[in-house]
């Protein structure tokens, strides 16, 4: 590895560390603000009613927090140790492979958390009369736990069947080895492609619904709720695309050359860190419930599920 390549790899890793640290501190601030508002509401009103948007927001915050923490522990710190030549002997230990499996599962959980939020918006707009789709118990006790179970079970073959979670060549951690193409396609589909496609389908249906509404209500302003949903879902899709594009370009190049360089994995985790940072920072702009909670001296309506 040339000195210039080593400098680039180390720079990517340091940027990744900064972004993940920002994401962690931001999520901690969000959680502290939510707890503080709960205490304030309890003190002023005597009871707290938690709604679906708030639960889904907390679900996303926790996913970002866990994923970023795991990435620092499993990827960033060992890579920095290697880059600064503090330690050069790294082994493929089973616990490291399992830790990589958990990290990748949390990456998938993060994307599926956004899909779940998009699902709530989708059902509220398209199936506004189906009240059972907006029950708190459906999300709290069924959909959110199933999201974790589905991702962890779906990625389990990578650890026990495909056996492509291994020590990355020239790196200091275990991860998905992209030389096994079909296994990589499967894992990418579970963690990114399928949730991305689902959000796209939701987006298409909502656009169609808005066009039908416009045709019926000529000359009238679009329903504010539909507009907010479209704008926020479009932002989510744009952020997902931004995270995937740099990695995909390098991955295609490496497939053509049949040689997978370390820069592929550095860009992969840098893109992941950029996603965590962007998601954490922009979350209040996507979710009005969180933005209301963060307002100084302001308490968001706790029992209003039309806020998102």
TrEMBL record:
TM region(s), chain numbering: 12-36, 48-66, 98-117, 138-161, 181-207, 233-252, 267-286
Subcellular localization, as worded in the UniProt entry: Membrane
GO cellular component, as recorded: membrane
Alphabetical list of Gene3D superfamilies matching this protein: Rhodopsin 7-helix transmembrane proteins
Protein keywords: Membrane, Transmembrane, Transmembrane helix
Residue span, G-protein coupled receptors family 1 profile domain: 112-287
InterPro entries: GPCR_Rhodpsn_7TM
Name of the protein this chain belongs to: G-protein coupled receptors family 1 profile domain-containing protein
Lineage start: Eukaryota, Metazoa, Spiralia, Gnathifera, Rotifera
